[in-house]
Specification:
Helix content is 38%, strand content 0%. The protein is mainly α. Belongs to the histone H2A family.
Length: 92
């Protein structure tokens, strides 16, 4: 056998150990890819990363860094949102 190890495990595929940080990185990429796909673009921008991280509760608590070019997360307070039909005046 030239160049290979011969043994009882030589034909089996070994499962590579993946660290928690690598899994978190893959999850961020997946969520950012979903955000870019929703906006129908092919590139992941810092804005997509920001939306992915801040949209996930666990990642938001894990990653507290400021992302350059990420913008802000849209939020409108509940008291500022009017009820449907509340803006129309009543006919007398």
């Amino acid at each position: 056998m030239a160049g290979g190890k011969a043994g009882k495990d030589s034909g089996k595929a070994k499962a590579k150990a993946v660290s928690r940080s690598a899994r978190a990185g893959l999850q961020v990429l997946e969520l950012a890819g979903n955000a870019s796909k929703d906006l129908k673009v092919k590139r992941i921008t810092p804005r997509h990363l920001q939306l992915a991280i801040r949209g996930d509760e666990e990642l938001d608590s894990l990653i507290k860094a400021t992302i350059a070019g990420g913008g802000v997360i849209p939020h409108i307070h509940k008291s500022l949102i009017g009820k449907k039909g509340a803006g129309h005046s009543q006919p007398s």
